[in-house]
Each structure stands twice: as structure tokens, then as C-alpha cells.
Amino acid sequence: MNRTTSLHFLGAGVAAHIYAIVARRVLGPDGLCVTMLDRSHDVPDRTLCVWGSSLSAISAAAVAQWKHVRMGFGQCSIGLDLGSMVYCQYTAASIRALADAQVDIVRETGNAAAPNPEANVSLDSCDRGRDRIPASVSLLQHFRGWRIRTSTAMFDADVATMMDFRVDQSDGVCFVYVLPYAQNEALVECTVFSAAVWDAEQYEVRLRAYIADIIGASDYEVEATEIGIIPMTDRMPQRLHGESWIGIGTAGGLTKPTTGYTVARCVRDAEHMMMSYKRTGVFSVPPLPPGRFRWYDQLLLRIIRDEPHEVPRILWTLFSRNPVEKILRFLDEGTSLTDEVKIFWSLPWRPFLRAIIRR
Ligand SMILES: Cc1cc2nc3c(=O)[nH]c(=O)nc-3n(C[C@H](O)[C@H](O)[C@H](O)COP(=O)(O)OP(=O)(O)OC[C@H]3O[C@@H](n4cnc5c(N)ncnc54)[C@H](O)[C@@H]3O)c2cc1C
Q1: Which neighbouring-strand residues pair with 70?
Q2: Of 20, 61, 125, 134, which one has the fewest beta carbons inside 10 Å?
Q3: Residue 251 CA: which ligand 1 atom is closest?
Q4: What is the pLDDT of residues 295-311, one digit of tens each?
Q5: How many A from CA of 104 to the centre of ligand 1?
């Protein structure tokens, strides 16, 4: 490609760096000019996990990966082989480091209020408060995790625990997530789906109980703490703010309402956008996924809001009665209607029926 392409990023978070990496990969380095404006260029300490192929545009930024995952509920726990997929961990810092290694980025500091009319496109990670569809349900996924080191070997470093519901469920849907890095080192995170965040002690009581009773460790050091909040809402923000001014990342509506997963969706969105520009000279966003996926998310959000005690059993059944690769494809909105009928057939149907009736 001989033309010069200038990308201006409003907000320089995780999404901005993913789009810069994909732009470099699709458009090549020649003539690519990237500027990023953020109110602060500090990098948040953020653990980001993604399932899928190990050959994605950002895979060189992976800091850990697992071929097996575990789920827990009631008295049971099951290990699931991801088959052709991997569960990969990145960090905000590793994605930024990959972008810096591949792209010359000019960084500016300040309030990102308006697009840059000189740029070919302004890609915006700042929430402009404009709705394409307003929220009918608004909840939060919130968590607090400890990176711990145990005095003896306690973890199977090949198996990440995606959801273990064997924790107190009295204040909202709660599960523990474990990413083992070595036999004596792991991130153990207490994750909650509810309307409001908790006090630190509420998460920590559950973390201490899980580490003692399920992991079985009594002697350990907490080396770091991670906290986070991700919106769980069916709100669809407006993406196109003006000519060549496009919302990306969470502000662009790319966070999956029921899982919080955003990174893989940004990679796919960026690939579509950069390929369309390469072909036509215009940055166009991909079509929305079929509306039924939004409806499934809404049903689950209503169940989380109105019948949280049903959620652990639903999610356990989802993973324990279906091939894991199919479920991960379903969560990525890549399944067929026939697949989805089979998946819903396997689930406890009464809460869904009530959620369809109730708004
Ligand atoms: C702790 C945590 C863990 C997560 N884990 C996962 C995960 O495992 N997998 C996954 O797929 N997703 C995960 N997510 C969700 C999502 O991937 C992240 O929130 C991701 O950072 C979203 O990228 P973003 O660029 O949209 O937002 P951010 O990374 O938050 O970047 C937005 C940037 O815009 C800047 N900004 C905002 N407004 C302005 C303004 N007016 N002027 C200037 N700058 C501005 C901010 O300073 C920030 O740098 C996680 C989120 C959190 C909070």
C-alpha cells in the first residue's frame, strides 16, 4: 500500500493498542501514522483473558496459556479439554508493549473531546453517553483477586478454573476464578454479578474460605491484589459519532453483556475495519451480530437480576452438558440457530420462561 494512513485514537487503553497492532498487521508499516490522546498514559494493572485460536493478531503478547479449564458447583468439579482452542492470558501492559514494538505511536496527554479532522479516522474509546439503544438491565461484574504464593505445591499449572461456584452465594451470583502460573503460584479471584460493588471484606471472606477449603492451602503469601468492575448491560452505545469518528472497545459496545469479554471482539472488529479500509479506502464497522444473541444476553441478565440463586446451576449445566468448544463459540456469538436450540434444550428452562415473560 503506498498511501499514508493516519489513525487518531481518543483514549489510549487496551482497545486502542489492539487496533494499532491490527492496523500494522493489515496495512503494513509504510505510511502508517498513529497518534493517541489520553488523559493519562499510565498502564492499568489488568489481567485480560481470551479463549480461541493461539494464532490471533495479539498472540505474541500472551503471558500465559492453558489447554484445560475447570468448573465447580455443589459437590462436583469437572475438567474440560479445550480441544483446538487455548485460554490465553494477556495484560494491559503486554498488549501495549506489543503495540510499541510494532508501531511508532505519538502519545499526547489531555482531554479527548473531539476527533482529529486531519486523520483518516478517529477511533474513540471514551464513552460519549450517547445511546443507540438504552439499557433495560444494568448490573455489574465486579471482582477482587489475590495473586498468591503457597509454601507447597497446590496447583495444577495446566488447568485454569473458569468458574467455581463452591462459595457463599448469599449476596449475589459469586464464583472463584483461578489462573495458576506454577504449582505454588496463582491468581485467585472472587467474581460477583450483582447491582452494586461489595466492601473489600466481602470478597476477602470468600477468598480466604476458598483458598482454605477448596484449594487446601493454609500457608500462603498475598503478593498482589487486582480489583475491577465491568458493566453488564444491554445498553448499546452509539458507535458512529460523525464522519470517520468511530467508537471502539467498551465505549463502542464491544463488551459482551453477560461475560465482560471484550478483547477478542476488539481484535475481530479491528480486523474487519482495517480490511475494509484496505479494500475500499473507507473504515466501516462490521454488521451487528444476529439480534437473537442480544435477546439471550437480556434473558440471562434478567435472571441474574431477579433470580440470582438460579444462575450457578444454569452456568454449570451449560458447561457440563455441552461440548466446551461449542459453548465458547456460543459465547462468541458464532453458533448456528440449530446449535443454540440444542444448547437451550440442555438448560433448566423455567427461569428462562419466567425471564421471557418478565421485563
Ligand atoms: C480488571 C478488568 C479485567 C478485565 N478482564 C477482561 C478479560 O479477562 N477479558 C476480556 O476480554 N475483557 C476483560 N475486561 C474488559 C475489557 O477488556 C477492559 O475493560 C479493556 O480495558 C477495555 O478496553 P477499552 O480500551 O475499551 O477501555 P480502557 O482500557 O479502560 O481504555 C479507555 C481509555 O480511555 C481513556 N479516556 C476515557 N475518557 C477519556 C477522555 N475524556 N479523555 C482522554 N482519555 C480518556 C482512559 O484514560 C483509558 O486509558 C476487563 C476489565 C477490567 C476492568
Answers
A1: 79, 161
A2: 134
A3: 26
A4: 999 999 999 999 999 99
A5: 21
The span from the first CA to the last CA of the chain, in angstroms, equals: 51
Enter the pTM of the model.
0.95
Task: Indicate the residue type of 280.
Answer: T
Question: 258 CB under 6 A from ligand 1?
Answer: no
Compute the distance between CA of residue 292 and CA of residue 298 in angstroms, rounded to an integer.
Answer: 10
What mean pLDDT is predicted for residues 184-213?
97
- Closest residue by CA, ligand 1 atom 7: 48
Question: How high is the pLDDT of residue 2?
Answer: 59
Alpha-carbon gap, residue 74 to 23, rounded angstroms: 46
Name the strands in the sheet holding 86-91, side by side, starting at the edge strand that comes first in the sequence: 47-52, 86-91, 64-66
Please compute Rg for the chain using Cα positions.
Answer: 21
| Atom of ligand 1 lying closest to residue 92 CA | 21
Tell me which of 262, 331, 332 to substitute to probe ligand 1's pocket, judged by most ligand atoms within 8 Å of the beta carbon.
Answer: 262
Residue type, 71: M
Best mutation site among 88, 126, 259, 332 for ligand 1 pocket (most ligand atoms within 8 Å of CB): 126
DSSP per-residue letters across 261-328:
--HHHHHHHHHHHHHHHHHHSS--PPPPPPHHHHHHHHHHHHHHHH-GGGHHHHHHHHHHSS-HHHHH
Q: How far apart are CA 349 and CA 347, in angstroms?
A: 6
Ligand 1 atom with minimal separation from the 254 CA: 26
The response to whether residue 249 sits with its C-beta less than 6 Å from ligand 1 reads yes
